[in-house]
Amino acid sequence: QALRPLTNSDLDLSNAVRSFVPTLGRFAGEARRNKMGLAYWDSDASLLWKALNSTLADARADYTIFFRSLADIPLEDEAPAALLLKAVADSFYIQPTVAQQHKLITCLRALAKLVRRDVECGHSLLDRRAVMLKTNPRVVPRNWILEQASDLVETG
């Protein structure tokens, strides 16, 4: 009802609503693909995204640090678990449980496999890293912190 005044007809509104979900899906897939440093978004990437997010939530990870650190994970087949965990260790304020670590290792190995697939298709690891660092900032300022800083500047 709220959108009706913005359209010329109910058909326009119906078409807009119908196209929203696939359009949102495409943009979300693109953002997720860039966050993980993948050249393609497919069903394997989607399944990995779901598993990874579930694991990160369970382990109470810092998502900003985690996704940025993915630019540096070892990509070789069956990379040692300790190296994989070391690459993302700063993402956790408390040590993940053994079960969480196993899930992380599984996800990181799956990501490395997808990246190796991209490389086999001619995609550059340097380009991957550049996109990831651009997509995953080191720091995400929070509005309340910016407001406090602005207030301090104004009051001297």
Concise synopsis of the structure shown:
This protein is mainly α. The protein contains seven helices and no strands.
Structure description:
- The chain is mainly alpha-helical and 156 residues long.
- It is built from 7 helices and no strands.
- The longest helix has 27 residues, at 10-36.
- It is globular, with a radius of gyration of 20 Å.
Present the secondary structure layout.
Elements: H1 10-36, H2 43-59, H3 63-69, H4 81-88, H5 98-120, H6 125-135, H7 143-155
Helix pairs in contact: 1-6, 2-5
Q: Estimate the helix proportion, in percent.
A: 55-70%
Low-confidence stretches: none
The overall strand count is 0
Helix/strand/pairing category: mainly alpha
Give the overall pLDDT as a whole number: 89
Shape: globular
What is the element string, with H for helices and E for strands?
Answer: HHHHHHH
Keywords for this entry:
single chain, 156 residues, globular
